[in-house]
Amino acid sequence: MPQEKFDVVIVGLGPVGATLAHLLGMAGVKTLVLDREGAQYHLPRAVHFDDEVMRVFQWVGIADELLPKLRVNAGMKFVGDDGQLLLDWPRPQEESTLGWNASWRMHQPDLEALLRTGLEARESVTVRTRCEAFNVDDRGDHVELRYEDMTKGEIHHIKASYVVGCDGARSLIRRYIESGMEDYGFHERWLVIDVLLKADKPELGDHTVQYCNPTQPMTYARGPKNRRRWEIKVAPDADSQKITTEAATWKLLEKWLRPDEAEIERTAVYVFHSLIAENWRKGRLLIAGDAAHQTPPFMGQGMCAGIRDAANLGWKLAQVIQGQASDGLLDSYQSERHPNAREFIETAVRLGGLINAADSERALRAAMTKPDGSAAMKSIYPALGAGLGPGAHAGQLFGQPRLQDGTRMDDVIGHRFVLVADADLVQDLRLRRDLAVVTTQDAPDAKAHLDSLGVLAVLLRPDRYILGTANTEQELTALIDQSDLTIR
Ligand SMILES: Cc1cc2nc3c(=O)[nH]c(=O)nc-3n(C[C@H](O)[C@H](O)[C@H](O)COP(=O)(O)OP(=O)(O)OC[C@H]3O[C@@H](n4cnc5c(N)ncnc54)[C@H](O)[C@@H]3O)c2cc1C
Protein backbone atom coordinates (compact mmCIF):
# COMPACT_ATOMS: atom_id res chain seq x y z
CA MET A 1 0.00 0.00 0.00
CA PRO A 2 1.46 3.46 -0.85
CA GLN A 3 2.41 5.54 2.16
CA GLU A 4 -0.39 7.95 3.07
CA LYS A 5 0.48 11.66 2.95
CA PHE A 6 -1.34 14.51 4.69
CA ASP A 7 -0.78 18.26 4.74
CA VAL A 8 -1.24 18.38 8.51
CA VAL A 9 -1.45 15.65 11.14
CA ILE A 10 -2.98 16.78 14.42
CA VAL A 11 -2.16 14.56 17.38
CA GLY A 12 -5.03 14.84 19.90
CA LEU A 13 -8.76 15.32 19.42
CA GLY A 14 -9.44 17.35 22.56
CA PRO A 15 -11.19 20.72 22.16
CA VAL A 16 -8.05 22.36 20.75
CA GLY A 17 -7.20 19.66 18.19
CA ALA A 18 -10.84 19.46 17.09
CA THR A 19 -11.10 23.24 16.65
CA LEU A 20 -7.86 23.37 14.66
CA ALA A 21 -9.12 20.48 12.49
CA HIS A 22 -12.29 22.47 11.74
CA LEU A 23 -10.34 25.56 10.74
CA LEU A 24 -8.03 23.55 8.47
CA GLY A 25 -10.99 21.63 7.07
CA MET A 26 -12.80 24.88 6.24
CA ALA A 27 -9.75 25.89 4.20
CA GLY A 28 -9.68 22.50 2.43
CA VAL A 29 -6.35 21.43 4.00
CA LYS A 30 -5.88 17.65 3.93
CA THR A 31 -5.76 16.87 7.63
CA LEU A 32 -5.53 13.71 9.73
CA VAL A 33 -6.46 13.80 13.41
CA LEU A 34 -5.29 10.96 15.66
CA ASP A 35 -6.46 10.28 19.20
CA ARG A 36 -5.41 7.39 21.38
CA GLU A 37 -8.81 7.20 23.10
CA GLY A 38 -11.82 5.52 21.53
CA ALA A 39 -14.26 8.12 22.82
CA GLN A 40 -14.05 11.70 23.99
CA TYR A 41 -13.08 12.37 27.61
CA HIS A 42 -16.48 12.09 29.28
CA LEU A 43 -15.91 13.78 32.62
CA PRO A 44 -16.31 17.51 33.15
CA ARG A 45 -13.24 19.68 33.07
CA ALA A 46 -13.70 23.22 31.72
CA VAL A 47 -16.87 25.01 32.82
CA HIS A 48 -16.18 28.50 31.46
CA PHE A 49 -15.22 30.23 28.23
CA ASP A 50 -15.34 33.79 26.94
CA ASP A 51 -16.69 35.86 24.04
CA GLU A 52 -13.55 35.55 21.92
CA VAL A 53 -13.76 31.76 22.11
CA MET A 54 -17.50 31.80 21.34
CA ARG A 55 -16.63 33.79 18.23
CA VAL A 56 -14.28 30.98 17.16
CA PHE A 57 -17.11 28.48 17.72
CA GLN A 58 -19.23 30.74 15.50
CA TRP A 59 -16.65 30.37 12.67
CA VAL A 60 -16.52 26.61 12.95
CA GLY A 61 -20.30 26.48 12.80
CA ILE A 62 -21.29 25.08 16.20
CA ALA A 63 -22.39 28.25 18.05
CA ASP A 64 -26.11 27.87 17.31
CA GLU A 65 -26.22 24.26 18.46
CA LEU A 66 -24.04 25.03 21.46
CA LEU A 67 -26.17 27.95 22.68
CA PRO A 68 -29.01 25.93 24.27
CA LYS A 69 -26.41 23.96 26.23
CA LEU A 70 -24.84 27.10 27.73
CA ARG A 71 -25.60 29.58 30.45
CA VAL A 72 -24.57 33.22 30.49
CA ASN A 73 -22.29 33.67 33.48
CA ALA A 74 -23.61 36.10 36.10
CA GLY A 75 -20.16 36.91 37.45
CA MET A 76 -17.88 36.13 40.35
CA LYS A 77 -18.00 37.13 44.01
CA PHE A 78 -15.11 36.88 46.44
CA VAL A 79 -16.30 36.31 49.99
CA GLY A 80 -14.45 36.19 53.29
CA ASP A 81 -14.49 33.67 56.13
CA ASP A 82 -17.83 34.76 57.55
CA GLY A 83 -19.51 35.29 54.18
CA GLN A 84 -18.83 39.03 53.83
CA LEU A 85 -18.47 40.24 50.22
CA LEU A 86 -14.86 41.25 49.57
CA LEU A 87 -14.98 41.89 45.85
CA ASP A 88 -17.54 41.72 43.08
CA TRP A 89 -16.70 40.84 39.46
CA PRO A 90 -20.01 41.20 37.65
CA ARG A 91 -20.10 40.04 34.05
CA PRO A 92 -22.21 42.03 31.59
CA GLN A 93 -25.47 40.30 30.66
CA GLU A 94 -25.54 41.85 27.21
CA GLU A 95 -23.40 41.20 24.10
CA SER A 96 -19.85 42.48 24.17
CA THR A 97 -18.27 44.24 21.19
CA LEU A 98 -17.22 40.79 19.95
CA GLY A 99 -20.86 39.95 19.24
CA TRP A 100 -21.40 37.46 22.07
CA ASN A 101 -21.80 37.57 25.84
CA ALA A 102 -18.52 38.03 27.65
CA SER A 103 -18.61 34.90 29.78
CA TRP A 104 -20.30 31.52 29.40
CA ARG A 105 -20.87 28.42 31.53
CA MET A 106 -20.68 25.05 29.84
CA HIS A 107 -20.17 21.31 30.24
CA GLN A 108 -16.94 20.47 28.34
CA PRO A 109 -18.20 17.07 27.05
CA ASP A 110 -21.18 18.86 25.37
CA LEU A 111 -18.76 21.12 23.54
CA GLU A 112 -16.42 18.30 22.52
CA ALA A 113 -19.33 16.20 21.23
CA LEU A 114 -20.46 19.05 18.95
CA LEU A 115 -16.93 19.71 17.71
CA ARG A 116 -16.46 16.02 16.89
CA THR A 117 -19.82 15.58 15.16
CA GLY A 118 -19.20 18.71 13.09
CA LEU A 119 -15.90 17.28 11.83
CA GLU A 120 -17.77 14.47 10.06
CA ALA A 121 -18.91 17.02 7.48
CA ARG A 122 -15.39 18.36 6.77
CA GLU A 123 -14.36 16.55 3.61
CA SER A 124 -10.64 17.16 3.85
CA VAL A 125 -10.43 15.99 7.49
CA THR A 126 -9.95 12.34 8.51
CA VAL A 127 -10.37 11.37 12.17
CA ARG A 128 -8.90 8.15 13.56
CA THR A 129 -9.53 7.27 17.18
CA ARG A 130 -7.82 4.51 19.20
CA CYS A 131 -4.74 5.51 17.26
CA GLU A 132 -1.70 6.51 19.29
CA ALA A 133 1.14 8.49 17.77
CA PHE A 134 4.45 7.26 19.19
CA ASN A 135 7.21 8.44 16.89
CA VAL A 136 7.87 11.50 14.71
CA ASP A 137 10.87 12.25 12.56
CA ASP A 138 11.25 15.67 10.93
CA ARG A 139 13.14 14.98 7.69
CA GLY A 140 13.39 18.66 6.71
CA ASP A 141 11.02 18.61 3.74
CA HIS A 142 8.34 16.48 5.47
CA VAL A 143 7.64 14.60 8.71
CA GLU A 144 7.47 10.82 9.05
CA LEU A 145 5.00 9.83 11.77
CA ARG A 146 4.29 6.40 13.19
CA TYR A 147 1.15 5.50 15.05
CA GLU A 148 -0.48 2.37 16.37
CA ASP A 149 -4.06 1.56 15.49
CA MET A 150 -4.90 -0.07 18.79
CA THR A 151 -8.12 -1.65 17.52
CA LYS A 152 -6.18 -3.86 15.13
CA GLY A 153 -2.74 -3.73 16.73
CA GLU A 154 -1.30 -2.33 13.47
CA ILE A 155 1.58 0.09 13.11
CA HIS A 156 1.14 2.76 10.41
CA HIS A 157 3.83 4.94 8.80
CA ILE A 158 2.52 8.18 7.31
CA LYS A 159 3.95 11.42 5.90
CA ALA A 160 2.88 14.95 6.76
CA SER A 161 3.98 18.45 5.82
CA TYR A 162 3.39 19.56 9.42
CA VAL A 163 2.51 17.81 12.70
CA VAL A 164 0.69 19.74 15.42
CA GLY A 165 0.67 18.29 18.94
CA CYS A 166 -2.68 19.14 20.54
CA ASP A 167 -1.90 16.20 22.76
CA GLY A 168 -2.41 17.69 26.20
CA ALA A 169 -0.22 18.36 29.21
CA ARG A 170 2.00 15.30 28.73
CA SER A 171 2.52 16.02 25.04
CA LEU A 172 4.59 13.60 22.98
CA ILE A 173 5.18 16.23 20.30
CA ARG A 174 6.53 18.68 22.91
CA ARG A 175 9.14 16.05 23.78
CA TYR A 176 10.19 15.83 20.13
CA ILE A 177 10.46 19.62 20.05
CA GLU A 178 12.65 19.18 23.15
CA SER A 179 11.12 22.21 24.81
CA GLY A 180 11.78 23.14 28.40
CA MET A 181 8.98 24.69 30.48
CA GLU A 182 8.81 28.18 31.98
CA ASP A 183 7.42 27.82 35.48
CA TYR A 184 5.27 30.61 36.97
CA GLY A 185 5.39 29.08 40.43
CA PHE A 186 1.89 27.74 41.04
CA HIS A 187 1.52 23.97 41.64
CA GLU A 188 -1.37 23.02 43.90
CA ARG A 189 -3.66 20.04 44.38
CA TRP A 190 -7.36 20.85 44.19
CA LEU A 191 -10.29 18.53 44.71
CA VAL A 192 -12.97 18.98 42.03
CA ILE A 193 -16.51 17.82 42.87
CA ASP A 194 -19.22 17.85 40.21
CA VAL A 195 -22.81 17.29 41.25
CA LEU A 196 -26.17 17.03 39.50
CA LEU A 197 -28.94 18.63 41.55
CA LYS A 198 -32.11 16.55 41.85
CA ALA A 199 -34.26 19.67 42.23
CA ASP A 200 -33.72 23.40 41.89
CA LYS A 201 -31.76 24.99 44.73
CA PRO A 202 -31.82 28.76 44.09
CA GLU A 203 -30.08 29.60 47.35
CA LEU A 204 -26.81 28.27 45.87
CA GLY A 205 -26.91 31.28 43.57
CA ASP A 206 -25.91 31.92 39.97
CA HIS A 207 -22.56 33.58 40.66
CA THR A 208 -19.25 31.86 40.94
CA VAL A 209 -18.11 32.28 44.55
CA GLN A 210 -14.47 32.33 45.61
CA TYR A 211 -14.32 31.47 49.31
CA CYS A 212 -11.20 33.28 50.48
CA ASN A 213 -10.47 31.14 53.49
CA PRO A 214 -6.71 30.82 53.96
CA THR A 215 -7.00 27.39 55.61
CA GLN A 216 -9.27 25.97 52.92
CA PRO A 217 -9.78 28.18 49.86
CA MET A 218 -12.56 26.94 47.59
CA THR A 219 -14.66 27.87 44.60
CA TYR A 220 -18.33 27.24 43.87
CA ALA A 221 -19.43 27.44 40.23
CA ARG A 222 -22.86 27.17 38.68
CA GLY A 223 -22.97 25.13 35.50
CA PRO A 224 -25.70 24.87 32.88
CA LYS A 225 -29.00 23.29 33.94
CA ASN A 226 -28.61 21.22 37.16
CA ARG A 227 -24.80 21.08 37.13
CA ARG A 228 -22.90 22.57 40.06
CA ARG A 229 -19.17 22.38 40.90
CA TRP A 230 -17.02 22.87 43.99
CA GLU A 231 -13.23 23.13 43.73
CA ILE A 232 -11.44 22.84 47.06
CA LYS A 233 -7.74 23.27 47.78
CA VAL A 234 -6.17 20.09 49.13
CA ALA A 235 -3.73 20.36 52.03
CA PRO A 236 -0.21 19.15 51.11
CA ASP A 237 -0.41 16.21 53.56
CA ALA A 238 -3.98 15.11 52.67
CA ASP A 239 -4.48 11.64 51.21
CA SER A 240 -6.08 11.96 47.75
CA GLN A 241 -7.94 8.66 48.11
CA LYS A 242 -9.42 9.44 51.52
CA ILE A 243 -10.74 12.88 50.52
CA THR A 244 -12.49 11.54 47.41
CA THR A 245 -14.64 8.93 49.17
CA GLU A 246 -18.37 9.58 49.05
CA ALA A 247 -18.58 10.12 52.80
CA ALA A 248 -15.72 12.64 52.76
CA THR A 249 -17.24 14.46 49.79
CA TRP A 250 -20.65 14.89 51.46
CA LYS A 251 -18.89 16.12 54.61
CA LEU A 252 -17.18 18.84 52.56
CA LEU A 253 -20.47 19.83 50.91
CA GLU A 254 -22.63 19.72 54.07
CA LYS A 255 -22.80 23.51 54.30
CA TRP A 256 -24.61 23.64 50.95
CA LEU A 257 -26.19 20.26 50.13
CA ARG A 258 -27.70 17.15 51.70
CA PRO A 259 -27.06 13.74 50.06
CA ASP A 260 -30.73 13.41 49.03
CA GLU A 261 -30.55 16.70 47.11
CA ALA A 262 -27.95 15.79 44.50
CA GLU A 263 -26.02 13.03 42.80
CA ILE A 264 -22.23 13.22 42.85
CA GLU A 265 -21.14 12.89 39.23
CA ARG A 266 -17.48 12.58 40.08
CA THR A 267 -14.74 13.70 42.42
CA ALA A 268 -11.14 13.99 41.29
CA VAL A 269 -7.95 15.55 42.56
CA TYR A 270 -6.10 17.59 39.95
CA VAL A 271 -2.67 19.16 40.28
CA PHE A 272 -2.95 22.59 38.68
CA HIS A 273 0.24 24.00 37.20
CA SER A 274 1.37 27.31 35.72
CA LEU A 275 3.70 26.40 32.88
CA ILE A 276 4.49 27.57 29.37
CA ALA A 277 6.64 25.65 26.89
CA GLU A 278 9.74 27.56 25.83
CA ASN A 279 9.47 26.39 22.22
CA TRP A 280 6.15 25.93 20.44
CA ARG A 281 7.75 25.08 17.12
CA LYS A 282 10.75 23.21 15.84
CA GLY A 283 10.89 22.83 12.07
CA ARG A 284 7.72 21.07 10.99
CA LEU A 285 6.53 20.24 14.52
CA LEU A 286 4.26 22.58 16.48
CA ILE A 287 2.27 22.40 19.72
CA ALA A 288 -0.99 24.03 20.85
CA GLY A 289 -3.34 23.98 23.84
CA ASP A 290 -2.34 22.26 27.08
CA ALA A 291 0.70 20.87 25.27
CA ALA A 292 2.01 24.47 25.11
CA HIS A 293 0.69 25.95 28.36
CA GLN A 294 -1.13 25.09 31.58
CA THR A 295 -2.81 27.48 33.97
CA PRO A 296 -4.42 27.43 37.42
CA PRO A 297 -8.22 27.40 37.05
CA PHE A 298 -9.12 30.75 38.66
CA MET A 299 -9.75 32.63 35.40
CA GLY A 300 -11.38 29.66 33.59
CA GLN A 301 -8.96 30.26 30.73
CA GLY A 302 -6.96 27.05 30.09
CA MET A 303 -8.98 25.76 27.17
CA CYS A 304 -9.70 29.32 26.02
CA ALA A 305 -5.97 29.90 25.54
CA GLY A 306 -5.80 26.69 23.49
CA ILE A 307 -8.72 27.73 21.28
CA ARG A 308 -6.92 31.03 20.67
CA ASP A 309 -3.83 29.03 19.63
CA ALA A 310 -5.96 27.11 17.13
CA ALA A 311 -7.46 30.33 15.73
CA ASN A 312 -3.99 31.85 15.34
CA LEU A 313 -2.35 28.78 13.83
CA GLY A 314 -5.20 27.55 11.63
CA TRP A 315 -5.17 30.29 8.99
CA LYS A 316 -1.37 30.54 9.01
CA LEU A 317 -0.94 26.81 8.33
CA ALA A 318 -3.58 26.98 5.59
CA GLN A 319 -1.80 29.93 3.92
CA VAL A 320 1.59 28.17 4.06
CA ILE A 321 0.24 24.86 2.77
CA GLN A 322 -1.64 26.54 -0.06
CA GLY A 323 1.46 28.46 -1.12
CA GLN A 324 0.07 31.90 -0.23
CA ALA A 325 2.68 32.49 2.47
CA SER A 326 6.16 31.25 3.26
CA ASP A 327 6.91 28.85 6.09
CA GLY A 328 8.36 31.84 8.02
CA LEU A 329 4.78 32.95 8.78
CA LEU A 330 4.59 30.09 11.29
CA ASP A 331 7.30 31.73 13.42
CA SER A 332 4.82 34.46 14.33
CA TYR A 333 2.62 31.82 15.99
CA GLN A 334 4.68 31.57 19.18
CA SER A 335 5.84 35.19 19.20
CA GLU A 336 2.19 36.33 19.10
CA ARG A 337 0.54 33.72 21.27
CA HIS A 338 3.10 33.22 24.05
CA PRO A 339 2.79 36.70 25.66
CA ASN A 340 -1.00 36.54 25.42
CA ALA A 341 -1.17 33.12 27.13
CA ARG A 342 1.39 34.29 29.72
CA GLU A 343 -0.76 37.27 30.72
CA PHE A 344 -3.73 35.02 31.48
CA ILE A 345 -1.54 32.59 33.45
CA GLU A 346 0.14 35.35 35.46
CA THR A 347 -3.26 36.88 36.27
CA ALA A 348 -4.62 33.48 37.34
CA VAL A 349 -1.57 32.88 39.55
CA ARG A 350 -2.04 36.34 41.15
CA LEU A 351 -5.73 35.66 41.70
CA GLY A 352 -4.89 32.29 43.24
CA GLY A 353 -2.45 34.04 45.58
CA LEU A 354 -5.14 36.51 46.67
CA ILE A 355 -7.71 33.78 47.35
CA ASN A 356 -5.07 31.87 49.35
CA ALA A 357 -3.71 34.91 51.20
CA ALA A 358 -3.77 35.00 55.01
CA ASP A 359 -5.62 38.33 54.82
CA SER A 360 -7.52 38.00 51.55
CA GLU A 361 -9.60 41.12 52.08
CA ARG A 362 -6.55 43.35 52.41
CA ALA A 363 -4.76 41.57 49.59
CA LEU A 364 -7.75 41.85 47.25
CA ARG A 365 -8.36 45.48 48.03
CA ALA A 366 -4.70 46.35 47.59
CA ALA A 367 -4.57 44.59 44.24
CA MET A 368 -7.88 45.68 42.78
CA THR A 369 -8.56 49.15 44.15
CA LYS A 370 -10.01 51.68 41.71
CA PRO A 371 -9.12 55.39 42.01
CA ASP A 372 -12.39 56.01 43.92
CA GLY A 373 -11.36 53.49 46.61
CA SER A 374 -13.80 50.72 45.70
CA ALA A 375 -12.48 47.32 44.66
CA ALA A 376 -13.23 45.95 41.20
CA MET A 377 -12.00 43.35 38.81
CA LYS A 378 -12.20 43.51 35.02
CA SER A 379 -11.85 40.93 32.28
CA ILE A 380 -8.61 41.19 30.35
CA TYR A 381 -8.12 41.09 26.58
CA PRO A 382 -4.34 41.14 26.16
CA ALA A 383 -2.99 41.99 22.71
CA LEU A 384 -0.85 39.52 20.82
CA GLY A 385 2.90 39.68 21.16
CA ALA A 386 5.11 41.01 18.36
CA GLY A 387 4.29 39.37 15.08
CA LEU A 388 2.54 40.55 11.95
CA GLY A 389 1.47 43.96 10.91
CA PRO A 390 2.72 47.49 11.36
CA GLY A 391 1.22 50.24 13.46
CA ALA A 392 -0.17 51.08 16.84
CA HIS A 393 -3.17 48.75 16.95
CA ALA A 394 -1.63 45.70 15.26
CA GLY A 395 -2.25 42.57 17.33
CA GLN A 396 -5.36 43.91 19.08
CA LEU A 397 -8.61 41.99 18.79
CA PHE A 398 -11.27 43.84 16.76
CA GLY A 399 -14.99 43.70 17.54
CA GLN A 400 -17.68 42.13 15.41
CA PRO A 401 -20.02 44.65 13.77
CA ARG A 402 -23.51 43.62 12.73
CA LEU A 403 -24.62 44.19 9.15
CA GLN A 404 -27.74 46.22 8.19
CA ASP A 405 -29.99 43.16 8.57
CA GLY A 406 -28.56 42.31 12.01
CA THR A 407 -26.33 39.45 10.83
CA ARG A 408 -23.00 39.16 12.62
CA MET A 409 -20.15 40.19 10.30
CA ASP A 410 -18.21 36.91 10.57
CA ASP A 411 -21.24 34.88 9.44
CA VAL A 412 -21.04 36.66 6.11
CA ILE A 413 -17.29 37.16 5.73
CA GLY A 414 -16.03 33.84 7.10
CA HIS A 415 -12.53 33.11 8.28
CA ARG A 416 -10.51 35.36 5.91
CA PHE A 417 -8.94 38.81 5.61
CA VAL A 418 -11.41 41.68 5.81
CA LEU A 419 -11.20 45.44 5.57
CA VAL A 420 -13.61 47.34 7.83
CA ALA A 421 -13.69 50.95 6.72
CA ASP A 422 -15.51 54.23 6.61
CA ALA A 423 -17.69 54.16 3.46
CA ASP A 424 -16.41 57.53 2.18
CA LEU A 425 -12.77 56.49 2.58
CA VAL A 426 -13.06 53.46 0.30
CA GLN A 427 -15.63 54.59 -2.25
CA ASP A 428 -13.06 55.64 -4.88
CA LEU A 429 -10.46 53.00 -4.08
CA ARG A 430 -9.78 50.01 -6.33
CA LEU A 431 -9.21 47.20 -3.84
CA ARG A 432 -7.86 43.70 -4.32
CA ARG A 433 -10.72 41.55 -5.48
CA ASP A 434 -10.02 38.79 -2.95
CA LEU A 435 -10.22 41.23 -0.05
CA ALA A 436 -13.58 41.23 1.76
CA VAL A 437 -14.79 44.73 2.62
CA VAL A 438 -17.34 45.85 5.22
CA THR A 439 -18.08 49.58 5.20
CA THR A 440 -19.88 51.75 7.71
CA GLN A 441 -22.76 51.68 5.22
CA ASP A 442 -22.95 47.87 5.23
CA ALA A 443 -22.66 47.74 9.03
CA PRO A 444 -23.79 50.93 10.77
CA ASP A 445 -22.19 50.02 14.11
CA ALA A 446 -18.80 49.53 12.43
CA LYS A 447 -18.34 53.28 12.96
CA ALA A 448 -18.43 52.83 16.74
CA HIS A 449 -15.83 50.04 16.50
CA LEU A 450 -13.56 52.26 14.36
CA ASP A 451 -14.15 55.33 16.54
CA SER A 452 -13.09 53.41 19.65
CA LEU A 453 -9.64 53.14 18.03
CA GLY A 454 -9.72 56.63 16.50
CA VAL A 455 -9.23 55.30 12.95
CA LEU A 456 -11.18 55.20 9.68
CA ALA A 457 -10.14 51.74 8.52
CA VAL A 458 -8.79 48.48 9.93
CA LEU A 459 -7.38 45.53 8.04
CA LEU A 460 -8.26 42.35 9.92
CA ARG A 461 -6.61 38.95 9.73
CA PRO A 462 -8.77 35.83 9.47
CA ASP A 463 -8.56 35.45 13.28
CA ARG A 464 -9.94 39.02 13.60
CA TYR A 465 -6.86 40.52 15.15
CA ILE A 466 -5.83 43.83 13.60
CA LEU A 467 -3.09 43.74 10.98
CA GLY A 468 -3.04 47.51 10.62
CA THR A 469 -5.12 50.69 10.60
CA ALA A 470 -5.44 53.73 8.33
CA ASN A 471 -6.92 57.21 8.31
CA THR A 472 -6.33 58.28 4.71
CA GLU A 473 -6.57 56.72 1.25
CA GLN A 474 -2.78 56.75 1.00
CA GLU A 475 -2.32 55.03 4.35
CA LEU A 476 -4.89 52.43 3.41
CA THR A 477 -3.33 51.67 0.03
CA ALA A 478 0.09 51.39 1.67
CA LEU A 479 -1.31 49.12 4.39
CA ILE A 480 -2.89 46.74 1.91
CA ASP A 481 0.27 46.61 -0.25
CA GLN A 482 2.51 46.22 2.78
CA SER A 483 0.37 43.60 4.48
CA ASP A 484 0.48 41.56 1.33
CA LEU A 485 4.26 41.57 1.75
CA THR A 486 4.11 41.03 5.50
CA ILE A 487 2.41 37.67 5.25
CA ARG A 488 4.54 36.30 2.42
C1 LIG B 1 -10.88 20.70 36.78
C2 LIG B 1 -10.58 21.50 35.56
C3 LIG B 1 -11.28 22.67 35.32
C4 LIG B 1 -11.02 23.42 34.18
N1 LIG B 1 -11.76 24.55 33.96
C5 LIG B 1 -11.54 25.26 32.83
C6 LIG B 1 -12.40 26.37 32.50
O1 LIG B 1 -13.36 26.67 33.22
N2 LIG B 1 -12.14 27.06 31.36
C7 LIG B 1 -11.13 26.72 30.52
O2 LIG B 1 -10.95 27.40 29.49
N3 LIG B 1 -10.31 25.65 30.79
C8 LIG B 1 -10.51 24.91 31.90
N4 LIG B 1 -9.76 23.80 32.14
C9 LIG B 1 -8.69 23.42 31.20
C10 LIG B 1 -9.21 22.63 30.00
O3 LIG B 1 -9.96 21.52 30.39
C11 LIG B 1 -7.99 22.20 29.17
O4 LIG B 1 -7.18 23.33 28.96
C12 LIG B 1 -8.40 21.62 27.82
O5 LIG B 1 -9.12 20.43 27.96
C13 LIG B 1 -7.12 21.34 27.01
O6 LIG B 1 -7.51 20.92 25.74
P1 LIG B 1 -6.45 20.24 24.77
O7 LIG B 1 -7.24 19.89 23.55
O8 LIG B 1 -5.24 21.08 24.67
O9 LIG B 1 -5.97 18.91 25.53
P2 LIG B 1 -6.79 17.66 26.05
O10 LIG B 1 -8.22 18.00 26.26
O11 LIG B 1 -6.02 17.12 27.19
O12 LIG B 1 -6.73 16.64 24.83
C14 LIG B 1 -5.53 15.99 24.46
C15 LIG B 1 -5.90 14.80 23.62
O13 LIG B 1 -4.71 14.23 23.07
C16 LIG B 1 -4.82 12.82 23.08
N5 LIG B 1 -3.45 12.29 23.03
C17 LIG B 1 -2.43 12.54 23.89
N6 LIG B 1 -1.30 11.93 23.48
C18 LIG B 1 -1.61 11.27 22.34
C19 LIG B 1 -0.86 10.45 21.43
N7 LIG B 1 0.45 10.20 21.64
N8 LIG B 1 -1.48 9.94 20.35
C20 LIG B 1 -2.80 10.19 20.13
N9 LIG B 1 -3.55 10.96 20.95
C21 LIG B 1 -2.97 11.50 22.04
C22 LIG B 1 -5.57 12.53 24.37
O14 LIG B 1 -6.22 11.26 24.30
C23 LIG B 1 -6.58 13.69 24.40
O15 LIG B 1 -7.80 13.36 23.78
C24 LIG B 1 -10.00 23.01 33.28
C25 LIG B 1 -9.29 21.84 33.52
C26 LIG B 1 -9.58 21.07 34.64
C27 LIG B 1 -8.82 19.81 34.86
Q: Any key phrases for this structure?
A:
8-stranded mixed β-sheet; D-Amino Acid Oxidase, Chain A, domain 2; Glutaredoxin; 488 residues; binds flavin-adenine dinucleotide; FAD/NAD(P)-binding domain; globular; alpha+beta; 23 strands
Helix and strand arrangement:
Elements: E1 4-11, H1 15-26, E2 31-35, E3 48-50, H2 51-59, H3 63-66, E4 71-72, E5 75-79, E6 85-90, E7 103-105, H4 108-119, E8 125-129, E9 131-138, E10 143-149, E11 154-165, H5 172-177, E12 181-197, E13 208-211, E14 218-222, E15 227-233, H6 240-243, H7 246-253, E16 262-277, E17 281-282, E18 285-287, E19 293-294, H8 302-321, H9 331-356, H10 360-368, H11 409-413, E20 418-421, H12 423-426, E21 436-439, H13 446-453, E22 457-460, E23 466-470, H14 473-486
Parallel strand pairs: 1-2, 1-11, 2-8, 5-13, 11-18, 20-21
Antiparallel strand pairs: 3-7, 4-7, 5-6, 9-10, 10-11, 12-15, 12-16, 13-14, 14-15, 16-19, 17-18, 20-22, 22-23
Helix pairs in contact: 1-4, 1-8, 8-9
